UniProtKB/TrEMBL annotation:
UniProt superkingdom: Bacteria
Designated name of the protein: Uncharacterized protein
Species the sequence originates in: Rhizobium daejeonense
Amino acid sequence: MTRLPTGKPVLPITPTVDENYNPTTCKACGRIAIGIGRSGPRDKDPGYLCKGCIVAVSDLSKMDRLSVYELKALDSGVEAVGEYIGEHGVTNLLDFDDLMQRMLVKAAWEGCIRGVREALKDAPF
């Protein structure tokens, strides 16, 4: 982390509390903090955040978009299900018995696994 000439790190902004442990400053951006914070196990400062940073963190944690790997897994699962249905010639799922339903799900599952493995071949890590 970059340090200021005084030796203090630029981020996070601390302390985030006053002498009575009331929230004062957002740990992330320096604006006025409210009473929600996050700190590490060895950190004595509660790490209070402002409303804007709390909203930003909650938006990031929703996970409403699928990753490239999840999309590849779903695509491969759909392909595997299509192949399974094509092999058996049954398109109405109500005509499947218990074993065929399970084997259909197994085909989807294995297709997803195959898709993830395929996508991870191109991963930068």
